[in-house]
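Please review the protein record below. Let me know how this chain folds according to its tokens.
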Amino acid sequence: MSARPRSTAAKAFDLLAAQPITAAGLTADERDWIVISAVADSQESEHVLSYFGNASWDLRPFYHQSNVSDCHKVIDWPADCPPAMVKDCKAVLYAWFKRGLPGAKPPVARGIYSAALASAIPVMRWLKQLGIERFDEVRPLHVSNFFHLSKVEMGLRPMTVYNRLRIFDLLWLFRDETLHPLQQSPWGNTTIWRFTGIKATKLAEAAGGRAGRTAIIPQDVQARVFTYCENVLKQAPDILKNRHQMLWAERNPQLIQIRDAALYILSITSGMRNEEAIGVESGSWRKEVKDGVEYHWVATVEHKTLKGKVEYLVPALTINALEVMREYAKPLQAKLVAEIKLLEAGSTTLSEKERLIRLEKAKCDSKKLFLCLLHGPQNRIDALSNTASRIAFRRLATAAGVDWNLQPHQCRRTYARMVVESKMGRASLIFLKWQLKHSSISMTQLYASNPLQDAAIFDEILQEMTYFKMDLIDSWLEDRPLTGGAGRVISRLRAIPIDNRSDLLAQTAAQVHIRATGHGWCLAEEKGCGGAGLYETTRCAGCKSSVIDETFLATWRGILDQQKELLAIADAGPAVQQRALRELRIATQVMKELGVTGDEVTSEQGAES
């Protein structure tokens, strides 16, 4: 046994490393005594949490995310499933956990848990209903029927179907690990990716397809929720100052309201995933000044792609929310510190195994901001879980008076969409200027100067840019008015039948350059007007590379009104009058082609007379 000292409870690395990487060739007893998880205390004593043969696999030591509840870290193998199937599912999941798939790294514990709960257990129960007790009795027809049940009868999306059928793939890939191996490939001559449709989905996503996308929070919902959160946080200092007067302070609705509001503000202004937002600790933010402009960064730990510590750029508003949360968390953090001292002294009714697990978790959460008091006999403090965060966001939406199923994971995509819409002119540069403090600075350059950047957010922004272009082109193919040179061409092309609209959109969005001018869309790939259309707006009306749709109707109405005002100036001179009349004719034509009728498009005659 290694003499390496341990100051805290940790995985029993030496014991776990000594376990076989395969269960194949072992006797039944040898299999059952393979250690799945174990912890070691500060004295090097090792404590096994679960063995291969146990009815439950406790994977808690393998989790590092703060927002995962303990109940989602333990696999309870069902007693109502055939024992032979359970043993083989355990064997293939263990092999996958130890060795990974060919050419890939082993999965994290969350992957094993998900495969067991989403695939292995439902499949075993379904097969049992058919009278099948062992996997060597399974035929491709059974797999096809389960696929039909999942995709057609249950109406699940390809990714969900893939996750439900995954145990069949693992049973085939690791068939040498099983006691009763599958006799035929469950996918025939293809793969699970193609069989379930996930291959097409992934290709579509890579090309800019829109399969399985998270909903974007609508702008009106964002506005109401954001305003509500700002108001809550403005009142927070006074509430926190008087919290000692509250009964059951940690569960007081006003304090919960503050925590919910701060979590939303952090999520929507940074693009953090929920696990990263919950992982933010006291004092993990900083500021720097570049060219006289102050920037704010928040550090957290990224687990999904194992990047470790990363930093997110946020506005000052977010830092204010985190300062509020620092005050909110102080009493809860103090209780965690007190609990840690008791656990280290052994003053607890918990078993030694549970004491070590709880000690590690308490130390991990001791500096977190988003803490809560769990119900139960011990009333312990924990970091807010992903499930609790979802409940918090639903509670937030109700309090803000919006009818929207608000979810934490929507914030990251909504953040990316806001960046794209700012870049594409839908929201001008208002968001970027507020977010980055300076409208002319490149977000990529600013992040690139930070070695702790979260580069993954750029991948999502670029993906969102493709989604945006697909949605935009899709809207042009609908029966709606378009003008501009390219707009008129697109209107004529609508008469041509399209075999596969999704493929067309994906390919077109990846190749076509679309830029916003503020009064239309520019598709020019050559020099074009050299940018003159940005300043002389009416140039775009006849340009072969422009598309003007209904979203710019208000802009063109404003251009029309400006010409009316110029024509009303008696002493403006003939040059101004001629220019205004020319611009008025163009704006009038644009309005007509966008479907506007009435006084607005007949005002030219009145002006000329």
Observations:
- Residues 10-206 form one domain.
- The first strand starts at residue 10 and ends at 11.
- The two ends are 101 Å apart (CA to CA).
